[in-house]
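User: For my dataset I need records formatted as: sequence, then structure tokens, nothing else. Please produce one.
Assistant:
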Amino acid sequence: MEERTSRGVWPHPPLLYDDVRDHLIKIIEKEEWFPCDLSSGREGVVIQNTGKNYICHLLQYSAYGPQFGSRKEQKSFRSAKKAADFYLKWDLHLPGDMDSWKVV
């Protein structure tokens, strides 16, 4: 932390929500899956680009692991912007803190 401060990179300015969302939109418009496909076993929101719409898969597993139950829901969006907003709100809880970065 001291080195960051001495170099003038700490504290860093907050990230703008719109900039984070715009970056995510660029990614999900060209990738079929973000951040991974459903076979990874990842909890949280996974976005699937079908070419016609964006499906947000919300996956939650039992505290004892996926073999003991899970909850799966899907929400479909026609625009990448709405899918990105859903992901940022429900997976990253933004605006707010993201790995020590403030997103406003």
